[in-house]
Amino acid sequence: xxxxxxxxxxxxxxxxxxxxxxxxxxxxxxxxxxxxxxxxxxxxxxxxxxxxxxxxxxxxxxxxxxxxxxxxxxxxxxxxxxxxxxxxxxxxxxxxxxxxxxxxxxxxxxxxxxxxxxxxxxxxxxxxxxxxxxxxxxxxxxxxxxxxxxxxxxxxxxxxxxxxxxxxxxxxxxxxxxxxxxxxxxxxxxxxxxxxxxxxxxxxxxxxxxxxxxxxxxxxxxxxxxxxxxxxxxxxxxxxxxxxxxxxxxxxxxxxxxxxxxxxxxxxxxxxxxxxxxxxxxxxxxxxxx
Amino acid sequence: xxxxxxxxxxxxxxxxxxxxxxxxxxxxxxxxxxxxxxxxxxxxxxxxxxxxxxxxxxxxxxxxxxxxxxxxxxxxxxxxxxxxxxxxxxxxxxxxxxxxxxxxxxxxxxxxxxxxxxxxxxxxxxxxxxxxxxxxxxxxxxxxxxxxxxxxxxxxxxxxxxxxxxxxxxxxxxxxxxxxxxxxxxxxxxxxxxxxxxxxxxxxxxxxxxxxxxxxxxxxxxxxxxxxxxxxxxxxxxxxxxxxxxxxxxxxxxxxxxxxxxxxxxx
Lengths: 290, 267
Known about the structure:
heterodimer, A: 290 residues, alpha/beta, Rossmann fold, six-stranded mixed β-sheet, four-stranded antiparallel β-sheet, 11 helices, 14 strands, B: 267 residues, mainly alpha, 2 domains
């Protein structure tokens, strides 16, 4: 099983959203990391076949997904970033409706829906209207619908957004298990999620992959670029202006700053252990507070 | 059955096809205890999986799919059309009613379709729906088939009632022209909006439908000969354009049948 992206591009007039992206993805969990507007959602939509690329193509097991049509959508599970629902539907009706659209026969769908409602811990709310659901519950029903057809390729745009920490860990484990023999591509801003489950990280900037590799390979790239500096509280603000500060921790009268920089930012700075979040901040210095 | 077919078409031939994977492995490994020859067992299992890929899960065909869409959307489609029919029938049952007012009622039948056709866009469901097996286009096609059927029934009833009230069977051609020309112009615009716009398309279609029906209605009332002439021309042009379009599309679908695609058979 293989999903290949062959020089995939998407232009909106003169704006290039995705620029000649190529990759070969086998079974595993792939974390797509990038700032807002980096082209992640556009790329995911093209991988789902709902957005036509300006150039290039997506191949599933060597066949173009555009030519495969329903054959590809049969093995696809997709959770969009912002998805709606029919407010009058209950959780069960919503999943049954999507099962019908996925072509799952009713007798199979009934069992599958029940099973998935248990997986996402919503069995007790199966007959409740979706309009009464909280944000986290809606997200869980979104994840359940993506799993309905037991997809070979699962594309999840911000799957853990809105989930509480316990649910997030639960879904991370679920996705990790699923990715053992399926292709799972997930995009998120929550770096710790990617750090925890992604077999490979694709760092996206201005429509291109700027880095690809396992979490440890990428962390290696940030090694030597992370510094800790203790300064008086009064200087903290000016440091935040002149450097990329990943973290700020008060210790009595002083403040300990975690600074991302190619060079030693100050005589008093000491090297610190790098994390994936540091690499993210290194590539996206304007994106603070991740 | 599919598995049987796969086996029959196996390059290894019918005689070599094992009754079960376990038996095949035993025979291949000559009854040795499998765990002792783990590497060999694993490679044989891999070869089997390659040769006989896991069965694809059963999927519904076109008519089951249409029936499923009907189960979810049918109530709204037929309910709204029935409501439009009732309103239109009440409208023509007044004493002051005239044949030339029919174009105003055409709008009701198109308005009644909009909540169903734009439901996905209005509720932000179009992206999830588009990534399903059915895809956005096929969902729209199924809704159009259902809404078209409901329109056909309701408009026939409406025209039948109008004919009975007017007691003018000879005017049937004019009557059809009065309702179909505004209806088709609203529908053509609406389909174009569905394709190009999101939820804004619904409001644009409503506005365009209203304008179109007012235009046709006013011209039918004030200048019936002009209406007859222009509607007749629009009808003839529409007939030629859509006739050509449908022939081309049906031919395209028929060609798809050769590739084993579902909609080819439906064509």
